[in-house]
Amino acid sequence: MVVQLSVRDRSAAERDLSSLLARVGASQVRRQAEFTFVAVVPQSSYGEFTRGMAQIGAWQMETDRSTVPDPVHVAIRLVSRRPG
Fold first, then answer.
1. Which residues are paired to 37 by β-bridges?
2. pTM for this structure?
3. Which of 9, 18, 46, 76 meets the CB 3.0–4.6 Å disulfide criterion with 37?
4. Residue 71 preceded by cis peptide, ω within 30
């Protein structure tokens, strides 16, 4: 699953996302050049994870997934949102 998260302050968003991942029991598996975070989120925490992302910025799923696997492998790409 690939998610794009649009944020105003990238460094604050990275901090907030790291905290969110820890709070929901996710593990960061690796960083890749094109993604800010690649993590594994327990399916039982996925709802809390998506609500937390919405508090950090506007998010959009880049890949369509009708069912959520357990665990959820998610790649998160942070993009800077321009003011205005």
1. 76
2. 0.85
3. 76
4. yes
Place of tokens 């790291």: 18
Residue 1 per-residue DSSP state: -
Q: How far apart are CA 41 and CA 68, in angstroms?
A: 10
Q: Can you tell me the distance from the alpha carbon of 67 to that of 36, in angstroms, rounded to the nearest whole number?
A: 24
Q: At 8, is the secondary structure helix, strand, or coil?
A: coil
| Sequential pLDDT tens for the chain (84 residues) | 899 999 999 889 999 999 999 999 999 887 777 778 899 999 999 999 999 999 999 999 877 667 788 899 999 999 988 765
- Using alpha carbons, list the distances in angstroms from residue 56 to 19, 28, 50, 66, 78: 11, 18, 10, 24, 11
Collapsed DSSP state (helix, strand, coil) of residue 43: helix
- Do 26 and 40 contact (CB within 8 A), yes or no? yes
